[in-house]
Write a structure and sequence with these properties.
disordered N terminus; mainly beta; single chain; four-stranded antiparallel sheet
Length: 375
């Protein structure tokens, strides 16, 4: 009798409509989702893939929760740049965007770290930590995987994203190589599942391009990783008129032309509303013009926001976008000041969170956002 009851209960569970199952699972915290991948193959596939409908439902539920958390890389080392430190720590803080305070701190040990070539990138609930070694971490489950060494050491650009077609996370690294007396860039890809299982034990060489200086960090939006192609001259190094895009589904690169950059502005990439945006920031003034990439294939951009705050007397730089309550906001930092600035894209108002007034970042530190994570 008991066996029959278990069998009937299992059948009812498997017969749940996908839409209902997506709605229920999307309301659960990250740790519960990890446990429920063992319930059935359907649940495992839905949670770990992740299913496009599940991702949308998960994002919708995050909008209605009391706190939406993201990660900031506060300090890359314990000491100063000049010190010779063999064992360093990467200090990461979780910031609660509703209560606008530091929620929790992490300290990850790192060996032989050089802050100028260290990269921290996020995708969904995973962190990619890249220097000489590349590792993937899940802070919710405390899982960690160290990737095999690539065939070519050093990288000029690295990206991390998710392919909905192959249902895999992919790390893309561009490295410098010399062939026939000319410098060029090669591209290697490494794939792994949501459970940090490797697709293979080696990197796959896919592409070669003329050598270019690429921005750090990269930006991942809807299956595509983007880097700014920087001006090689020292005077205008941070100016950019084109973008290198890499489609993770097709595993093919593309060059995207940008709106013309005026001499007194600096360009920055940022993800907002699941779209790629390009911000032209005036030097020495809090004036920012923001463009949205409307058509990637034809390099079509649409001017969407113009920010001008005369009360701020220096350059403001967009760092990322966050969900604060029900509203998506851009986070800026003042180049010569302390604290963060939140810009409401709907109301056009800028505000400075009081609890984060002393929050500072150095020029080589970059924010890292975890969008599908709870604590």
């Amino acid at each position: 009798m008991e066996e029959q009851f278990v069998e009937k209960k299992s059948m009812r569970l498997n017969e749940l409509p996908t839409d209902l199952l997506v709605d229920v699972l999307s309301r659960l915290p990250e740790k519960s989702l990890c446990r429920f991948t063992c319930v059935s193959k359907e649940w495992q596939s839905l949670i770990s893939s992740p299913h496009p409908g599940f991702v949308k439902a998960l994002r919708r539920q995050r909008l209605h929760r009391k706190s939406y958390l993201y990660i900031w890389n506060i300090s890359l080392f314990d000491g100063n740049v000049e010190s010779d430190v063999e064992d360093c720590s990467l200090r990461i803080s979780i910031v609660d965007t509703v209560n606008e305070r530091i929620q929790e701190n992490y300290c990850l040990p790192i060996n032989n770290m050089n802050p100028f070539i260290y990269t921290v990138i996020s995708c969904h609930d995973l962190l990619c930590l890249a220097q000489t070694k590349i590792s993937i971490c899940n802070l919710s489950t405390q899982e960690k995987a160290i990737l095999p060494d690539p065939d070519h050491l050093g990288h000029v650009g690295i990206g991390f994203g998710y392919s909905s077609v192959s249902k895999e996370f992919k790390i893309v690294r561009w490295f410098m190589q010399k062939k026939d007396g000319r410098m060029s860039m090669g591209c290697e890809i490494f794939s792994l599942t949501n459970r940090l299982r490797f697709k293979s034990d080696s990197w796959k060489l896919t592409e070669t391009r003329p050598f270019e200086f690429l921005s750090k960090p990269s930006v991942f939006v809807n299956g595509v990783i983007f880097w700014q192609i920087l001006n090689p001259t020292f005077k205008n190094f941070f100016e950019s008129n084109s973008i290198l895009a890499f489609d993770l589904d097709e595993e093919e690169p593309q060059i995207i032309s940008c709106p013309k950059l005026s001499p007194d502005t600096v360009a920055h990439l940022v993800e907002l509303k699941e779209c790629l945006y390009l911000a032209h920031c005036s030097k020495g003034k809090a004036i920012v013009k923001i463009w949205r990439l409307e058509d990637q294939k034809n390099s079509l951009w649409v001017s969407e926001y113009y920010i001008n705050f005369s009360s701020i007397c220096n350059t403001i730089v967009p760092l990322t976008s966050v969900l604060a309550g029900h509203v998506e906001e851009l986070v800026f930092i003042s180049v010569k000041g302390k604290g963060l600035l939140y810009y409401n894209v709907e109301s056009g108002k800028m505000r400075k969170p009081e609890n984060l007034e002393n929050f500072t970042l150095r020029w080589y530190e970059f924010p890292c956002v975890l969008r599908n994570m709870e604590f």
